[in-house]
Amino acid sequence: MAESINDIRGQKIKELVEEMKLYNNPQELEDMKKIMKKNVPFMMRGYLLAYLYVTRQNTTVKPKAQSAEREKKPQQPKPALENATSFYVNIGKASKGSAREMTDFICEKSGLSAEDIVSVAYKQNYSFVYIKNDKKEGVIEAVTGQTYKGRKVKMNYSKEKDEQ
Questions:
Q1: Residue 146's closest CA among 105, 97, 96?
Q2: Cα–Cα distance between 153 and 149 in angstroms, integer?
Q3: Would the pTM of this model clear 0.70, i.e. be above it?
């Protein structure tokens, strides 16, 4: 039975959502979200996304073998993160902050510059902060025990399985 164009588009949108979750620069997405909120009326945002999808995507049907082959390829580590150490921080979106605010907080408490923080994966209840290997010394001691938005901060080296 042939898939309808809506089924194919729905699957492609699901793939884009998964790809977005793995995007290595969540701060860029956060900044873009703020720009869209400021410039696109609430009732038009869905239409804008649909327009961007229709005009920017190749919606032709791809055989299942190609998509299965693509999924089997091993994921390569992100080059920017190869020279960085991952830290777990017990602060996330639930603390009513943002990845940018988390970066500013860590820089203020540790003396790092924003360029020393490679990436922040800002999850709901916690974050993973990737700091350049040559700048990682003393960060845990500087940040742990500080207060961020009324919450006591705990920072540790993250476990390897959580870095993904």
A1: 105
A2: 10
A3: no
**Domains of the chain listed by start with CATH number:** 5-72 (no CATH), 79-163 (3.30.70.330)
Closest C-alpha to 132, from 87, 95, 96: 87
Q: 59 in helix, strand or coil?
A: coil
The DSSP output letter for 60 is S
Token pair in block for residue 80: 């920017």
Model pLDDT for residues 116-162, shown as the tens digit of each residue: 988 888 888 898 999 999 988 999 999 999 998 888 999 999 875 54
DSSP labels for 32-45?
A: HHHHHHHHS-GGGH
Question: Using CA atoms, how far apart are residues 85 and 136, in angstroms rounded to an integer?
Answer: 7
Name the amino acid, one letter, at 50: A
Which residue type, as a one-letter code, is found at position 135? Answer: K
Cα 164 to Cα 148: distance, rounded to the nearest angstrom:
25
Do residues 70 and 76 lie in contact, with contact meaning Cβ atoms separated by under 8 Å? no
Closest CA to 30 of 95, 123, 99, 78: 99
How many alpha carbons fall within 13 Å on the CB side of residue 64? 2
**Most distant CA atoms of the chain, gap in Å:** 61
In this structure, the number of other CB atoms found within 10 A of the CB of residue 149 comes to 13
